[in-house]
Amino acid sequence: MKTRAPPLANIITLGVRNFDAQRDFYRRLGWPQAFDSDDFAVFELRGALLALFSVDKLAADAHVRPDRSRGGIHFSIIISVEKPEDVDELAARVREAGGKLTKEPVDAELFTGRDAYFADLEGNFWEIACAPSDNPVSAASRRAAGLSPRRRRRKPVRKAAREGKASEVGRLTPLIREKSAPSFVGCNPAA
Description:
With 191 residues, this protein is an alpha/beta fold. The protein is 33% helix and 25% strand.
């Protein structure tokens, strides 16, 4: 059997009720706009595109009825960021742009890392997440976007060692070895 390449699925279209307000919201986030018309806008994300389209026109295009319910979460789109502090920075921009944080930035509950959730002006949910490079979803996301694997950060141990804080090196080294053994095979984490 012939192996086929996975499909290229990197355009997310949100059917929106108030096109102008939604477009302005994503503009206020500072995301680059790749296309703009009276009823269709596209924003560039790293490795994907976010398209906004009137829910009525999207439904007509798909030959279905539009769903205008506002009840609960139906999906979320994950925005992967490089550093834990990036979760907080983007969450602050979301708040300033008028979005609603439904989960403030915290240490993640279901994976190692940091995350937050927000809803845009029409209740479309997004997760802002930072996970270590050995997280399989994070690694797959980078591959899908054509990005090279991220190297594990060793700064806390190096900084503690450089500053002569032996207790910090002793405390952090086992944690780093435990959580990232594959990343440190053959090297000294405190080096």
